[in-house]
Amino acid sequence: MPTPLDLIKKKRAEAVSRIIGKGYLSTKRVYVGMATCEIAAGSKDVMEVFQKAISLGLTDVYLSQKGCAGRCNLEPTVEVIESGKSPVKYGKVDKDRAIQIIERHLKNGQVIQEWVID
Amino acid sequence: MATTYGIIVCDGTRCINSGARTLTLALQEQLDRHGLRDRVTISLSGCLGMCDKGPILVVNPGYTIYGNVTEADIPEIVEEHLVHRRPLARLAIQEDHLYNRFFRVFGDENFFGKQMRIALRNCGIIDPENLDDYLSLRGFEALAKVLTELTPEQVVAEVEKSGLRGRGGAGFPTGLKWKFTAAQKATPKYVICNADEGDPGAFMDRSAIEGDPHTVVEGMAIGGYAVGASKGIVYIRAEYPLAIRRITKAIEDARAHGLLGENILGSDFSFDIEIRLGAGAFVCGEETALIHSIEGARGMPRPRPPYPSVQGLFGRPTLINNVETWANIPVVLLDGANWFRTVGTENSKGTKVFALAGKVVNTGLIEVPMGTTLREIIYEVGGGIPDGKKFKAVQTGGPSGGCLPEGYLDTSIDYDSLARAGSIMGSGGMIVIDEDSCMVDIAKFFLEFTQNESCGKCTPCREGTKRMLEILVRITEGKGQPGDIEKLERLGDTIQKASLCGLGQSAPNPVLSTIKNFREEYEEHIHEKRCRARACTNLVTYEITEKCVGCGACRRVCPVGAITGAAKKLHVIDQDKCVKCGMCFNACKFDAIVKV
């Protein structure tokens, strides 16, 4: 009879494989802040830009929402994580910036330094 | 800006045993040698959970994790990584798996350097609407561990030993609450999560639930097991639709995975949670009023004892804790009370979440270890006061708290120090006030709030706050009378002592603390009819100075026609007509209008 601890470890392994199945190991992971405060600052539009780009064929990107990380005055925030590189956090992202992030950063690997929170 | 680095040295027991503390010294020596002392911060962290590879160093930005570091490796790390910006592959732990994700929030070193995240550990990291994300970060492992290895008594003992205190504001030892509820024989018992956050400017609980609702669900299930309850209720205000949606989904997902409901994870423990929406009355954050509200009665407090742990919801033993308290529970059980006790101060263990707001560069949601000073929060995490203005006070604890002036900036954040300084920890609102704000006006703002929210049950709160507010209004209108300050003090003292619940007992705090620390501002308002911050409109006059070029912008916006003057000539304000709306002041592009 498996113990609750055995069961939860199995559940975790399943969860990890489901996340990986959704493309977590893509070379780039993009997180868009989607708490009430971020949505109020316009993050829904930003999310739509990324969703649309993926539906139109942007590949090798894992897109996820996230909760509030705390940077209220710089919202909406978008985070790009690339394996082997420093994570990049963009602040005050709007539709236009989102499009630029896709074109310049995601497609061409060029970090847009002036919007980075550091 | 020159690249700055933040180095985190794991200060967990096993890393210390394998020599972590000598690494810090060696690091400092090397930083000095390269003249990097100002560009690199070294902070210690609690156990990072990679004990088998200790000692651990994390270099940010980039969350490069170095394992098995010895003193001899330090010169190479500093030289290669910090000087030449080449992370050292030889020692780096190449694990880009899901568990390491939380390091990435530390990349933003200025903001996150002094922070430590326990309750918010997953906020901004996981997709809150995906239980898989939470499970992948050891979610529900604490519950599973409890169900596998511990008796309910042992769980209560562990929470008690951890030193965790209620994060809703009063700071009552959580373990004691659990013990009292567990000791009751009556059944059924209930577990409640108080998410009726209502302080103006506070958004800790909302963000916590929106960022990671699962930890609350897990915490409550552990609480249910510990005290012998099979039903939990989340009381959350209806104004938080997204938080409600996410916690509802978290509960449904947990149910679908057998983490709530009958025979959780194959054990004989059954527990489920339902949501009750609050209508937004501030007093319903008080536990007995909250319980009345769930029962369908009017949300009013009742005298205690009996405490809810003895007679709570429907007269049954009830364990009621705040969102942040629940969010801490899985960590306490997973990493153990001994670890939890290493964070914080003698009598306040762990961390505290604050909603940092007001006149500060980085407004935000922060979580810092107890014992961090107000100065560190405002000037390091918060980045100081914007626009070169001068710091005046910091308000903690919302409408139940107080304002602390500059002299208290080195007060450490813990329940006892803040109380000694004349404020309270409260639920975590922290508002920074600069020289442009009037302390009498601030006190009036908070009292207006509590006065509105007073439920009216007991006279001191209902009538007393009303009278205090009347006095404050007249002071800010320039109609203050000698003796008003003493009257406020006397009334405040009576309300504190004679009110039934926490709302009334704490309502005078903003007034009394500003009188204590900024008495001269009250005196100026009353005796000189002067507001030094020029915030009280009735005590301010607008005047046009020599800088006026006669553009007429002020004349055109003035709603009462108080401004006259020919084109390109100095304009004048007729003080008898002026209603002090400030529109001319905002319209002037030449800074020619001043408040005096």
Describe the structure in your own words.
The complex is a heterodimer of chains A (about 120) and B (about 600). By secondary structure, chain A is of the alpha+beta class. Chain A has a single domain (about 25-115), classed as Glutaredoxin. Chain A has helices at about 5-20, 35-40, 45-55, 95-105, and strands at about 30-35, 60-65, 80, 90. Chain A has a 4-stranded mixed beta sheet with strand order 2-1-3-4, covered by helices on one side. In chain A, helix 3 (about 45-55) packs across helix 4. Chain A is globular. The model of chain A has no long low-confidence stretch (mean pLDDT about 90). In chain B, helix 17 runs antiparallel to helix 18 and helix 19 (about 485-500) packs antiparallel against helix 21 (about 510-530). Chain B contains 23 helices and 17 strands. In chain B, strand 6 (about 230-235), helix 11 and strand 7 (about 270-280) form a beta-alpha-beta unit. In chain B, strands 10-9-13-11-12 form a 5-stranded mixed beta sheet. Chain B is an alpha/beta fold. The longest helix of chain B has 20 residues, at about 510-530. Chain B has 5 domains: about 5-110, Glutaredoxin; about 130-340, Rossmann fold, CATH 3.40.50; about 350-435, Ubiquitin-like (UB roll), CATH 3.10.20.600; about 440-530, NADH-ubiquinone oxidoreductase 51kDa subunit, iron-sulphur binding domain (de novo design (two linked rop proteins), Up-down Bundle); about 540-595, 2-Layer Sandwich (Alpha-Beta Plaits).
Please tell me what the overall shape of chain A is.
Answer: globular
Please tell me the overall pLDDT of chain A. Answer: 89
CATH architecture of the largest domain in chain B: 3-Layer(aba) Sandwich
Given the helix and strand composition of chain A, which structural class is it?
alpha+beta
Counted up, domains of chain B total 5
User: Would you identify the regions of chain A where 5 or more consecutive residues have pLDDT less than 50?
Assistant: none
Q: Helical region count of chain A? A: 4
Q: Main sheet of chain A?
A: 4 strands, mixed
CATH class of chain A: Alpha Beta
Tertiary shape of chain B: globular
Strand content of chain B: 5-15%
The CATH architecture term of chain A is: 3-Layer(aba) Sandwich
Going by CATH, what is the homologous superfamily of the largest domain in chain B? NADH-ubiquinone oxidoreductase 51kDa subunit
Instruction: Report the order of strands and helices of chain A.
Output: HEHHEEEH
* Percent strand of chain A: 15-25%
| Major beta sheet summary of chain B | 5 strands, mixed
